Amino acid sequence: MSETQATDTGRVAAVLARYPRHDPGDLVNILHDLQAEFRYLTETALQEAAAYLGLPPAQVYGVTTFYHGFHTEPRGEHTCTVCMGTACHVRGAPRLLEQLERDTGVAAGGTTPDLSLNVEEVSCVGACAIGPLVILDGDTHGHMTADDLSRLVTKLLDNEGRE
Amino acid sequence: MNVELIVDDVQVTAEAGESVLDVARHAGRDIPALCHHEAVPTIASCRLCLMEVRRPGRDWVQLTTSCDYPVSAGLVVVTDSARIRKHRAMNLELLLRRAPDAPVLRQLAAQLDVTEPRFAPVTDAPLPDCILCELCVRVCSALGYNALAAIGRGAHKSVGPPFGQMEAPDCVGCGSCYEACPTACIPMEDTATTRAIWGRTFELLACERCGRPITTEAHAATMAAKADLPVKSDHLCDVCKRRIVSERLASPGR
User: Fold this and answer.
1) Is the Cβ pair B146, A43 closer than 8 Å?
2) Spatial strand order in the sheet of B62-65
3) What are the residues whose beta carbons fall under 8 Å from the beta carbon of B103, sequence distance 6 or more?
């Protein structure tokens, strides 16, 4: 076992230890915690969660793929979500998404190859008054233009590079 | 405990806990149901076993799947009506969208007068005739192998080995999923000595007497391990076992 794998196993065990009841009902909570730890759900993590809860790995995998919020592929460090709700749509949200996709070279739902950014779209976040809006790492940015979005994302990723 | 209910104007007795579908079938009704199998819990996913049910004390008639509707005293069940046929045909059209060439669906379509499905068929399904009833997953799980998973949901749902693998590592090649599949959509290839299923190839175990394949070696070994028995050296198929018994019974020395 490589060193990374050994560390990963330790981190999975630490997450599982928060659920001492071994209750299969805790599965979704465990998946949330594991994803918070690794950004996505590795096969190793899912296998270990399954063994911990006494569930078949196939069932754990089924639950994982059932929810759009869980990812089984490596995810980026930052997430930029473009609201595509009706109000944002009529105010040009598709242009924002196109700009973002052009800048990053990644289609909605994807992740940049260097794992820096996830590009997401969402149906509506309920902040129609300030549309079109994007959410960057949990922060809402309203009244966006394509240029603003380009600058915002470039700034974020450039700062990363300098650190 | 027994309960009395009415199926198509006839009073019948059923055991509490039985499903309305089973009771109607015992009463001789021919009800289509693809996802239902008596050996595993039902999930009512094919939506073809629709019936009209009225509970005592209620003045409305409920259109419901019958495979997951338990009988109760005083239930009034109608197994066939214009309303049932209309909605059953609609559900069949939706299944046909998913599996347009499945023979069992074509046959039902002829019975239910579905001639021109209105929905554009899915053309890129991994298993073309699969209606996603999960019967293979449920059967595999009930047998304790858990080699298959229901993957994803909605338009992109599929069934198959977990973790995106091409091969099912926990499969023992018993072929139960192949047998249970209502649309016969699971590819399984048997040669004289091997069985290929879910990306794996298993050695088949031959009957010592007649040479017919019994099951896969992996399946026999798993069953022996489960029953805590030694793996037998002599393997006989069911037919030969019966033949041996009858030969012994008929032998003059007995």
Assistant:
1) no
2) B10-15, B2-7, B76-78, B50-54, B62-65
3) B129, B183, B184
Within an 8 Å CB–CB cutoff, is residue A43 touching chain B? yes
Q: Per the structure block, which two tokens stand in for B113?
A: 């007068």
Mean of the per-residue pLDDT values of chain A: 92
Residues of B in contact with A61 (CB under 8 A): 149, 151, 162-163
What number is the ipTM of this complex?
A: 0.85
Q: What is the pTM of this model?
A: 0.85
- How far off is chain B from A147, nearest CA to CA, in Å? 35
* CATH number, domain containing residue A85: 3.40.30.10
Task: State whether A109 and A57 are in the same domain.
Answer: no
Contact assignment for A62 to B162 by CB distance below 8 Å: yes
**Which CATH number applies to B1-123: 3.90.76.10, 3.30.1050.10, 3.10.20.740, 3.60.40.10?**
3.10.20.740
Looking at the partner chain, which of B149, B152, B153 has a beta carbon nearest the beta carbon of A58? B149
Residue A52, domain member (yes or no): yes
**Please, what is the average pLDDT of chain B?**
92
pLDDT in tens, B98-156: 999 999 999 999 999 998 778 989 888 899 999 999 999 999 999 999 999 999 998 88
B147: chain A residues, CB-CB within 8 Å: 58
pLDDT of B104 reads 96
Q: How far apart are CA B204 and CA B197, in angstroms?
A: 12
Per the CB < 8 A criterion, the answer to whether B168 and B200 are in contact is: yes
pLDDT at residue B251, rounded to an integer? 82
Sequence-distant contacts of A115-118: CB under 8 A, at least 24 apart: A115/A74, A115/A75, A115/A76, A115/A77, A116/A76, A116/A77, A116/A78, A116/A157, A116/A160, A117/A76, A117/A77, A117/A78, A117/A79, A117/A80, A117/A153, A117/A157, A118/A75, A118/A76, A118/A78, A118/A79, A118/A80
By DSSP bridging, strand B158-160 and strand B149-151 are antiparallel
Mark out the alpha helices in B74-202 (DSSP H runs): 82-98, 103-111, 135-142, 176-180
B32: closest CA among B114, B125, B115? Answer: B114
Q: Do A58 and B147 touch (CB under 8 A)?
A: yes
Nearest-neighbour CA in chain B from A141: distance (Å): 31
Side chain identity at residue B108, one-letter code: L
Angle at CA B126, nearest 5°, toward B121 and B131? 55
